[in-house]
Amino acid sequence: MNVLLDHLPEFREGFIGTVLLTLSSGLLAMVLGVIVAGFRVSPVPPLRFLGAAWVTLFRNTPLTLLFLIAWFVVPVIFWPGLSPWTKAILALGFYTSAFVCEAVRSGISTVPLGQAEAARSIGMTFIQTLRLIVLPQATRTVIAPLSSIFIALTKNSAIAGAFSVAELFGVQKLLSDKGFAIVPIFLFVAIAYLIITFTISGLFRLLERRMGVAR
Amino acid sequence: MSSSVLYDAPGPKARVRNIIYTVLGSALVLGLVVFSVYRLNEKGVLEPEVWNIFNNAGVRANIRDGVLSTLKVFALAGVLSLVLGLLLAVARLSDHKWISWVATGFIELFRAVPLLITIYALWVLFLSYKDDLGVIGENASFWALVIGLTVYNACVQAEVLRAGVNAVPRGQVEAAYALGLRKTQVMTMLLLPQAVRSMLPTIISQLVVTLKDTSLGYIVTYAELLFAARTMANNIIVNGENPITAVVIVVAAIYIAMCLLLSSLATWIEKRGRRAKTGITVAHAGGTGGAPEDVPGDVGMPMDGPPDVSK
Amino acid sequence: MKLRKSAAVAATIAALALTATACGGDSGTAGDKPKGGSGGKDQPKLPTYTVATDVKVDSPTLKKAQKAGKIVFGAKNDQPYLGFEDTDGKRSGFDIEIAKMVAADLGFKPSQIEFKTVDSGVRETTISKGDVDLYVGTYTINDERKKQVGFSGPYFLAGADLLVRKGEKDIKGPETVKGKKVCSIVGSTPLQEIKKSKYGAETVELAKYSECVQQLLNNEVDAVTTDDAILQGYAAQRPEKLEVVGKPFTEEPYGVGMKKDDKALRDAVSDALENHQKNGNYKKAYDATLGLSGSKPQDPPALERY
């Protein structure tokens, strides 16, 4: 127990770090994911190709490798001078966006055909159909997979600890480097993760109940 | 792919617009590619010397060993996770309350803790009891990685299978009981085969995740592909620079190739499965007709209800 | 259809990769040999160590190693002139020589030494749990660590310093890093030091020093801090790009790490170090490794036995 009490500031910082990292990269992943999902079903072939390439690239690359790219390739090729936070958010957000995209895409496919047909027949464009008719309905089916994607994201953020971002796993490493017994630290860190992941799944379950209108 | 429910067959105006978008989109993609290549060239990444390192016998041996150790862990963890996943799924569906509770607790716990932490904890545990564990103690980092991956992925696979079992129409089970089959028989002869078949794409995309997650071995000093790549990227110097970009490109290509091979296996199996009309067809995405990505992979989703076993 | 195509592409890449690795040519160059590390005519040669026979030390670790016929050393693999591994898997450096000296006196031939790459973050774990028998890897002796592991040594005295890009104007020492970005590895002592308000640096923490150096070269950070001996090695790899400031601000005595309560082994390793300091091997090994990096020669430090 002493380890926890003596290092409360570190634990708090790590906890907040993990939460913030999850939130901000989750937001990025949502935005990118929905856009890329739109690309994947769009009428314009190069956009479809772009979407497919995006998903293939980011889904099949280990996250650690993406972190290495964000740290050592992106600054050389694109923008130098990003902060460790930005790099972590980019890596996590891009990686997760591929999964969000696929969730949204399979959500789109569960919307009854008639809906899209009706939308088209009253003259809606592709973007209108997607934005006003299909996506709002897809949301319902997408919530369950999204919840697990966000939980995965929370856990994946542990990898950022090795890349200069203060988060929970980093706390564990820091303290065990300082020479504290590893088991209690583990326990506290695991509990902290459980708190975050259970909160997420709880929130999503709530959301699901709210949105779960009878079809 | 010729037509989608989401948009009409384009008329003249739309066709013009689509062409404009096509041109713009292609220009964007091309521009990005050209810019990257330009920058890479400017930074000396495209110099022949940099790529020549991959002709070096040592570098090749390192990459080969890395791939082999990655595949070794993956093969073992993949098989074990499927076996354990099957057991966990059956346990969670068990009628005996306490078995079901234990399985649920196990699954919930290991799904919630980051894999990185599980692996690290197992490693420390194995090292602590090194002498009593025989084979496992000898090779603690390898087994920590294998068991960690197994436990985590088994939990996910168990949930996937459970969703598959739940998706089998009730009537079939009732019919089976009416025929006089016992509980075990219903599970092994009726529910599991159908669950496995209907969930194959998801199961395989989880295997892809398993393959990628072998890269977490760096935390326990296991020298898999990414570990080897990092060492090489840091220790080799060509033209006064570390060839990090080149190594990253090559290693990413290898990972993507391995994962794509695995997912195309999924597509192939799924197609075979669909040919047989007796199975439950999986809801598959419209749009671009992609298949293995049907169900978003990472952690299998907590599909508490039956998935959309459609129409 | 698209998928079949992608599968084909994947298969092609995989096949290419496999054939490429399988028929491995020697034609390529991997410039990872520290300059003049071996072979040069005027270069100081590495000493050879006489292997002791019939070593009897009442140490559980050693007895197990003798039974297994090999001794496992933990080491770093990315520190030129200290603990470095080239693409052929050959290790070199001062730490590696120290390991060979100690192993020789404990009765192990070079072929019986197994090196294992252990990064800073997991040193205590691997040592205290017996994953490695001994550890040589720029391992600073300090009281916090002594609670977990045992140390023989020190065999070298280093001090935290700063590595900067050649021609750096602003950073002249630890007092001038205020507001600058300084990189080091997670939890390292120099990092804790430079974070203090006295110096006030902004810090970036990565897993490996070599990754910090890369960040420095990419202009992503302004300085790298760790022990001068390590930094000298990196500077010597790229003399035209990097330099060491040369104002050490901490003391880092390097020791050989081992299990905490193994006093017999601790003494045996100390004896081995003392023996080689006296017979001149220490100096020879230093000249042939660290000395080449431009690190200042120093007298072997007095051993601290406990």
Automatic annotation (TrEMBL), chain A:
It comes from the Bacteria. One of its GO terms (molecular function) is transmembrane transporter activity. It is a multi-pass membrane protein. One of its GO terms (biological process) is amino acid transport. The keyword Nucleus does not apply. InterPro entries: AA_ABC_transptr_permease_3TM (IPR010065), ArtM/GltK/GlnP/TcyL/YhdX-like (IPR043429), MetI-like (IPR000515), MetI-like_sf (IPR035906). Pfam families: BPD_transp_1. One of its GO terms (cellular component) is ATP-binding cassette (ABC) transporter complex. Keywords: Amino-acid transport, Cell membrane, Membrane, Transmembrane, Transmembrane helix, Transport. Residues 15-204 form the ABC transmembrane type-1 domain. This is Amino acid ABC transporter permease. It comes from Streptomyces triticagri.
From TrEMBL, chain B:
It is a multi-pass membrane protein. GO terms for molecular function: transmembrane transporter activity. It is found in: Cell membrane. One of its GO terms (cellular component) is ATP-binding cassette (ABC) transporter complex. One of its GO terms (biological process) is amino acid transport. Keywords: Cell membrane, Membrane, Transmembrane, Transmembrane helix, Transport. Residues 297-311 have a biased composition (Low complexity). It comes from the Bacteria. Residues 283-311 are annotated as: Disordered. The chain crosses the membrane at residues 20-38, 73-91, 98-123, 244-269. InterPro entries: AA_ABC_transptr_permease_3TM (IPR010065), ArtM/GltK/GlnP/TcyL/YhdX-like (IPR043429), MetI-like (IPR000515), MetI-like_sf (IPR035906). Residues 67-266 form the ABC transmembrane type-1 domain. Belongs to the binding-protein-dependent transport system permease family. PANTHER family: AMINO ACID ABC TRANSPORTER PERMEASE, MEMBRANE COMPONENT OF AMINO ACID ABC TRANSPORTER. This is Amino acid ABC transporter permease. It comes from Streptomyces triticagri. The lineage of its organism: Bacteria, Bacillati, Actinomycetota, Actinomycetes, Kitasatosporales.
Automatic annotation (TrEMBL), chain C:
One of its GO terms (molecular function) is ligand-gated monoatomic ion channel activity. Residues 1-22 form the signal peptide. One of its GO terms (biological process) is amino acid transport. One of its GO terms (cellular component) is extracellular region. Residues 70-293 form the Solute-binding protein family 3/N-terminal domain. Keywords: Signal, Transport. Gene3D superfamilies: Periplasmic binding protein-like II. InterPro entries: Bact_solute-bind_prot3, Iontro_rcpt_C, SBP_3_CS, Solute-binding_3/MltF_N. PROSITE patterns: PROKAR_LIPOPROTEIN (PS51257), SBP_BACTERIAL_3 (PS01039). Residues 70-284 form the Ionotropic glutamate receptor C-terminal domain. It holds the Pfam family SBP_bac_3. Residues 26-47 are annotated as: Disordered. Transmembrane segments: none annotated. Belongs to the bacterial solute-binding protein 3 family. This is ABC transporter substrate-binding protein.
